[in-house]
Design brief:
The protein has 385 residues and is an alpha+beta fold. The chain contains six helices and nine strands. Keywords: Signal.
Length: 385
């Protein structure tokens, strides 16, 4: 019995042992299976990570490539736009240059047309007092700047070219004069501004006299010039010289005696511009430059200087004309000498054809007038007409 129990107990232990071993084996198998699964999962995860990284890198490469292509495309577009803009600017600059050249040519052509028909141009109405004074001041300023330029060649924002449009004939002429070297030692002695008419297109035509000298002028000269000036900015569009420049020695300055020791024996004597140039030219300049221009200024309330060269009947007649108000808007329109006679030692008659207009003249009129001019031992004076 005891043996039987011992045997049974031993069998029971053996079964327990086998059962435990079997359990351990199953546990190990499960562990190994689990480890394998985990390993497989890890491997799978790693593979997925690698694949994802590869995909990201590929996407990055594609994005980079797209960015590069986009940048290249934008750069190309900018370059094309730059080329277009550059070409456009070049075309614009060319167009602007052509436009300026055309404007300059148009300006020169306009001036030529006016001067070719100057007789009709002078028939335009006179400028008002404000425009007259403004243009007169600008013209004198122009000559002052011209003197500085001829003597120094300096260019600045206050130089003579303020009044000249680059590329026009006046501009080119002034530059050529300076570069020639003939106008050094330039001196300006006097500027007398006379008749002005409104061309009714924003421009004014001006009659002026200028006394000057320079290195090649052979002394002091006087010259009559006609200018066309824009009344808005006082740009000088063009000019035309009237006759030759003549010496001013002995011309009317109203400050000195003119004909010392120059008298013709036997009166009356007809003077000529060849045999009696000195006297003939002096009386011509006095009549047109000093007297008639001064008369226009007096009638138009610009200046009463003409009264100082009037005497006797001529003085009272001119004052009565002014008081009548019939001579307002008075303008001289040119004229010429018919004859000059010396009728005594200090007395002359000057006969002229002259054109003029005023408020009651019914347009421009031309008449022949004879002035009696006397040398009063200090200045010439008109005593009758």
């Amino acid at each position: 019995m005891n043996k039987y129990l011992i045997a049974l107990f031993t069998s029971f232990l053996l079964m327990l042992t086998l059962s435990a071993c079997s359990a351990n084996n199953n546990s190990e198998d499960n562990t190994e299976a689990s480890a394998t699964e985990e390993t497989n999962e890890d491997t799978s995860d790693t593979t997925e990570d690698i694949n994802e990284t590869s995909d990201l890198e590929k996407e990055n490469e594609e994005l980079k490539q797209q960015l590069v292509e986009k940048e290249n495309e934008e750069l190309k577009k900018k370059l094309e736009e730059s080329d277009d803009n550059s070409s456009s600017e070049k075309r614009q600059n060319t167009d602007d240059a052509d436009k300026d050249e055309n404007i300059n040519k148009s300006s020169d052509k306009y001036v030529l047309e006016i001067f070719n028909d100057s007789d009709n141009a002078w028939k335009n109405p006179p400028v008002d007092k404000t425009d007259y004074l403004g243009v007169e001041a600008s013209l004198k300023d122009y000559f002052s700047r011209l003197t500085h330029y001829y003597n120094t060649g300096e260019r600045s924002n206050k130089d003579v070219f303020f009044f000249l449009e680059e590329g026009t004939e006046p501009y080119n002429e002034i530059v050529a004069n300076y570069e020639s070297g003939n106008f050094t030692d330039y001196e300006l002695f006097d500027v007398t501004v006379g008749q002005m008419v409104d061309l009714q297109d924003e421009n004014i035509m001006v009659n002026a006299f200028r006394d000057y000298s320079h290195a090649t002028s052979d002394g002091e000269k006087t010259v009559q010039m006609i200018y066309i000036i824009n009344k808005e900015d006082c740009t000088i569009l063009g000019w035309k010289q009237q006759g030759e420049a003549v010496p001013v020695d002995g011309l009317s300055t109203n400050e000195e005696r003119y004909f010392d020791e120059y008298y013709t024996d036997g009166f009356p004597v007809t003077l000529t511009d060849t045999d009696d140039f000195y006297t003939y030219d002096t009386l011509t300049n006095f009549t047109f430059k000093t007297y008639l221009n001064g008369l226009s200024d007096y009638y138009n309330d610009i200046s009463d200087d003409v009264l100082y060269i009037l005497e006797g009947a001529a003085l009272s007649d001119i004052q009565n004309n002014k008081a009548s108000e019939n001579f307002q808007d008075y303008q001289n329109s040119g004229g010429n000498i018919v004859s000059i006679q010396q009728i005594s030692k200090n007395e002359y008659t000057v006969t002229v054809n002259r054109s003029y207009s005023h408020a009651t003249s019914n347009g421009e009129q031309t008449s022949q007038v004879t002035y009696t001019i006397v040398d009063t031992e200090g200045m010439l004076k008109v005593t009758a007409f």
